[in-house]
Write a structure and sequence with these properties.
Chain B: One of its GO terms (cellular component) is plasma membrane. The structure holds two protein chains of two kinds. Chain A is of the alpha/beta class. Chain A is built from ten helices and eleven strands. In chain A, strands 1-11-10-4-9-8-7 form a seven-stranded mixed beta sheet, sandwiched between helices. A four-stranded antiparallel beta sheet of chain A has the order 3-2-5-6, with helices on one face. The complex binds adenosine-5'-triphosphate and magnesium ion.
């Protein structure tokens, strides 16, 4: 099946481009020939029923699938036109450029400060203590967490509330100044207030980063994203502007899903 | 009669009770209006069987202890015993011989004097065998009947059986606890006796060790009971040298096994490593004494260190370290594996390499578990005896030179207990004081380690 692209999708410059991508776990095909663009200045949301391969595809975008021994990726994914699966690609560099936020907040069992400083230290981004302090403050400010934690930077990151932990993880991701941020259901473990804060944060970050968010909430997709891809059974059924997908879906499956009639 | 036959009889009675009670319960069931009993027939059966087996078990144990005395008493009361010598030792020998012939474990008496006693023994044994047999039968029958009479359709046999099972389980666990308690009490008792002769201050802080088991026990020389060199030797060998070997090797093998080795290799390597823990320590002792110690001495001589002894703290410590590796590595392995995958993914997604992730996230996160493993390993190492007996030497040297012979608490416990001193000589008793100190230290280490592990587990629930 071929992905249906909405006709009035205007061309934008693509940050990442996936062409004929298939992902296998052992012999099982989890992603089947997906081709899609990730625009550089927008938030793209991946929606679709459970088990359809959203996470798998997302993890293919920064080669996190490499950490699963049985996983295998076919096809081509480019970042700024360079194939990220080519043999010369430095995965460390790639992941610095394509950051990731997970479903469950996973701060390291270190201080808040060290959580943020982790990436910059690994990649040798900061020149000295002062610059590192600056990065920590800037990242936390961007993630809307600075005022809440500035007096307790040496407390453990795991001592924060769930919502704060997730914003800490976002701050940690932006501390290395990535170009793309991948978020896999970043709000599914959070209450509505914490969710609203994260959505606000995504809106703030929009424009500076290419953001991809996987979500099970139609409302969330509609609120935060400008592009939406509907996944089903390992394929992208429909892709277009979020407003088009939600108001005028072209495929029956998409319509069923967004109106809650799926399954 | 041998207890085996009585036991067999008891089991037979129990089985009979079991079958009869079950038949009875079946009968209840077919007579009851709704065909239901308060408990399944097997519970009724077990109820009666237990009522037969438990009292009989108690009786047989008591009988086993009591019957030899009863037999001896009746023999002594016989006219043939009037000729027995007064001297208790000779008397016992004769009695034992006659008894052995009477019950068939010996063919003939060695002492003529025992001969007239054989027949009375035979008679007494026969008599008491009969008594034992009949008592077993009667007790079994009475208890069984009593229990059987209690059976009714609405009898709560199940709860009673369950209670008995629980009591049996509790008894089993009590045995272990009470044994430990008994050990501690006897240790404490002997330790106090020792401290009545040598002051604890001299013992704990003195720096000269050399108790003389041949000296006058009433007037020990406290300056020869300074245990500091032993404590030092123990710590130096078990907690310093052994750990210098075991911590890096154990930790690195745990990291390799959890993070790098593929599934098939791990399935081989992990058990192989754990086999190390199952090697008898005396084998390590050989290895230390025959291979490692001479090698270290030759090496020391080769690099120009004179006076290196053939027994050295280094040899004992290194081999002990190897022995301890599985303890460190398996705890470290468990704790690293317990760090959530999300943590690892988080670090990798930041662009950290595998080794950076291990060093900066996994090991720090697993640290409490790793530390607890090291503490358990230390407590194991300082209690280790065979290796130090064979390779560390007996000289109580207070030195930092690993090439010299050193001695440890465990070594001296062995030496003092197997020495020539009489049992209540302070030199011998010092072994208990040493054992007590060792026990307290390992107990403390284990206690803290287990608490740390528990907290660690809770943190990642
Ligand atoms: N590590 C793995 N090994 C084998 N199969 C996997 C693995 N991870 C995912 N899969 C399979 O791949 C398919 C896609 O899974 P994926 O996690 O990408 O779905 P998803 O769309 O993210 O679902 P959800 O909305 O529930 O998160 C599923 O059938 C899943 O069972
Ligand atoms: Mg998913």
């Amino acid at each position: 099946m071929v992905t249906v692209i909405h006709p009035n999708l205007e061309a934008t410059d693509a940050k990442m481009n996936a062409k004929d991508v298939s992902v296998y776990y052992s012999d099982k095909k989890a992603i089947d020939n997906v081709s899609i663009e990730i625009p550089s200045k927008y938030v793209t949301s991946f929606i679709g029923p459970s088990g359809c391969g959203k996470s798998t595809f997302l993890r293919a975008l920064n080669r996190m699938n490499d950490t699963i021994p049985t996983a295998r990726v076919e096809g081509e994914i480019t970042l700024d036109g360079e194939d990220i699966y080519r043999s010369k690609m430095d995965v460390v560099q790639l992941r610095a450029r394509v950051g990731m936020v997970f479903q469950k907040p996973n701060p390291f069992p270190k201080s808040i400060y060290d959580n943020i400083a982790y990436g910059p230290k690994i990649h040798g981004i900061a020149q000295g203590k002062e610059e590192l302090d600056e990065i920590v403050e800037r990242s936390l400010t961007r993630a809307g967490l600075w005022n809440e934690v500035k007096d307790r930077l040496s407390d453990s990151g795991t001592a924060l509330s769930g919502g704060q932990q997730q914003r800490l993880c976002i701050a940690r991701a932006i501390a290395v100044d990535p170009e793309v941020i991948l978020m896999d259901e970043p709000c599914s473990a959070l209450d509505p207030i914490a969710t609203a804060k994260i959505e606000e944060l995504i809106a703030d970050l929009n424009g500076n980063y290419a953001i991809v968010i996987v979500t099970h909430s139609m409302q969330q997709a509609a609120r935060v994203s400008q592009r939406t891809a509907f996944f089903h059974l390992g394929q992208v059924v429909e892709y277009g502007r979020t407003s088009d997908i939600f108001t005028n879906p072209l495929e029956q499956q998409t319509q069923d899903y967004i109106t809650g009639r799926y399954g | 009669m041998s207890p085996a036959i009585l036991l067999l009889l008891a089991v037979g009675l129990g089985l009979a009770g079991w079958l009869v009670a079950r038949a009875r319960a079946w009968a209840f069931r077919s007579n009851a209006d709704n065909g239901r009993l308060a408990a399944l027939p097997t519970y009724h059966a077990w109820y009666v069987a237990l009522w037969i087996l438990v009292p009989l078990g108690v009786f047989i144990v008591i009988w086993m202890v009591a019957s030899p005395h009863l037999i001896e008493q009746s023999v002594l009361a016989s006219p043939a015993a009037a000729d027995l010598p007064e001297f208790a030792f000779q008397r016992d020998t004769l009695l034992r011989e006659a008894n052995a012939v009477a019950n068939g474990t010996a063919n003939a008496v060695f002492n003529e004097g025992a001969k007239p006693l054989v027949e009375p023994f035979r008679e007494a044994i026969g008599f008491y065998n009969l008594i034992g047999f009949l008592s077993t039968l009667i007790i079994g029958f009475l208890c069984g009947t009593w229990a059987f009479l209690q059976l009714k359709p609405d009898f709560a046999a199940r709860t009673r059986v369950e209670k008995t099972v629980m009591a049996a389980l509790m008894l089993a666990s009590l045995v272990a606890i009470l044994t430990t308690l008994g050990i501690v009490v006897s240790l404490v008792f002997e330790t106090f006796r020792f401290f009545g002769m040598v002051s604890p201050i001299d013992f704990l802080f003195g720096t000269q060790w050399g108790p003389d088991p041949m000296s006058n026990p009433d007037n020990p020389d406290p300056s020869r009971f300074g245990a500091i060199p032993l404590f030092w030797g123990t710590i130096y060998i078990g907690a310093i040298i052994a750990m210098i070997a075991a911590i890096p090797l154990g930790l690195m093998s745990a990291i390799y096994l959890t993070q790098y080795a593929d599934q098939r290799l791990r399935a081989w390597l992990k058990p192989a490593l754990e086999i190390l823990a199952g090697v008898p320590t005396v084998v390590y002792g050989y290895f230390a004494a025959l291979t490692v110690a001479p090698f270290i001495r030759d090496l020391a001589v080769a690099v120009g260190i004179s006076g290196a002894s053939s027994e050295s703290a280094l040899a004992a410590g290194l081999v002990m370290g190897v022995m301890i590796i599985p303890f460190v590595s398996s705890m470290a392995d468990d704790s690293i594996a317990a760090v959530p995958q999300a943590m690892r993914d988080g670090s990798l997604a930041m662009g950290a390499t595998k080794s950076e992730t291990i060093k900066k996230v996994l090991v720090p996160a697993a640290l409490p578990g790793i530390v607890a493993g090291i503490m358990l390993a230390i407590s194991r190492a300082i209690g280790e005896t065979m290796i130090v007996v064979m390779a560390a030497g007996a000289a109580a040297n207070l030195t930092g030179n690993p090439l010299e012979a050193m001695t440890t608490v465990t070594f001296q416990i062995v030496a003092m207990l197997t020495g020539e001193g009489s049992f209540d000589h302070p030199a011998t008793l010092s072994a208990f004081a040493l054992g007590f100190v060792l026990f307290m230290v390992t107990l403390g280490l284990n206690f803290v380690a287990l608490r740390v592990v528990k907290r660690f587990r809770e943190a990642y629930e």
